[in-house]
Specification:
Blueprint lengths: L3 H23 L3 H14 L11 H24 L4 H26 L9 H14 L5 H24 L2 E4 L1 E4 L14 H20 L1 H8 L2 H16 L54
Antiparallel strand pairs: 1-2
Helix pairs in contact: 1-2, 1-6, 2-6, 3-4, 5-6, 5-7
This protein binds zinc ion (ZN).
Zinc ion binds next to helix 6.
């Protein structure tokens, strides 16, 4: 089994790649790119939350206690709650996660149980999608994607470490317990898939998502990405052969716009968005 440092190193490298690619290739602003990279790095520890009392559980619950209330901030402001209520809710959540959730997880989870599984990665991704407040579904998906990437890097690394090399490869007993769709315990499987189904329903009931899918923004984003990829990789679309006039002289080519011109416009970070009354929801300037 890979240790704490190895997991953190791998997920940090992956996070830098994930945020860096979004920033460098798709024009993602630096703040969300750094946030997604950081969440990817932190999520590399997340599956070991079930490893009993010790460093992973302590570090993860402390970080979650700080990050979750901060991410909820945008939602609470959107609901028009006063600053006093937001502080009270944030403090209550901190105590709940730091002590209540930590104690619950310590007593009721089995190491290498369903926290080390694909449905768990999806669950944490969906939770992040719901927690992170933004009017852009693309931005929320990107941030949630960072969490899923970090989570999966942990599962993959655990599987890699379950192969031992003594001249020839030998599988340890733990092989196949990290990257799995279901475990041995029926109740744990049921519980994980029930959460996954419930969260998936909530994600698709999310007004922001429905609104933007109805507005056709998803298709627009896919179209933009399709145009961006060749531009980023400097592979211009094939152009027709040089046109010639009646005498066979080559005609001047029309001047094409530079292929690397950015076409994607990302919304600004809405971390301190004004209340709903002053910021009506709706399509951003896409
Ligand atoms: Zn693990």
């Amino acid at each position: 089994m890979a240790n704490f440092q190895t997991h953190l190193t791998a997920s940090t490298i992956l996070g830098v790649g994930y945020g860096g690619a979004a920033y460098g290739m798709y024009g993602m602003p630096p703040a969300p790119a750094i946030l997604a990279a950081s969440l990817c790095a932190v999520s590399g520890m997340l599956p070991d939350i079930d490893s009993g009392p010790g460093r992973p559980l302590r570090e993860i619950t402390t970080l979650m206690a700080a990050v979750v209330p901060t991410m909820l901030f945008g939602h609470l402001q959107h609901f028009g709650l006063s600053q006093e209520w937001i502080i009270l809710i944030g403090a209550a959540l901190y105590v709940f996660i730091r002590f209540g959730l930590a104690a619950f997880v310590r007593h009721y989870t089995v190491h290498r149980g369903m926290y080390h599984s694909f449905p768990a990665a999806a669950i944490f991704g969906e939770l992040t999608f719901l927690l992170f407040y933004s009017e852009s579904v693309v931005l929320r998906t990107f941030i949630a994607g960072g969490v899923v990437a970090g989570y999966l890097s942990h599962l993959l690394l655990d599987e890699i470490y379950s192969v031992q090399w003594d001249g020839s490869p030998r599988l340890k007993k733990s092989f196949g317990t990290a990257m799995k769709f279901y475990g041995e315990k029926r109740w744990a499987n049921f519980s994980a898939y029930a959460k996954l189904v419930l969260l998936t329903l909530v994600v698709f009931k999310d007004p922001g998502l429905v609104e933007q899918l109805q507005n056709g923004q998803a298709e627009q984003v896919v179209e933009e990405l399709r145009n961006e990829i060749p531009a980023a990789w400097n592979t211009p679309a094939p152009s027709p052969a040089n046109p010639t006039d009646a005498d066979g002289h080559t005609l001047p080519q029309p001047v094409a716009p530079p292929s690397s011109s950015p076409t994607t416009t990302w919304p600004t970070m809405p971390s301190f968005a004004p209340p709903a009354s002053t910021a009506p929801p709706g399509p951003t300037g896409q």
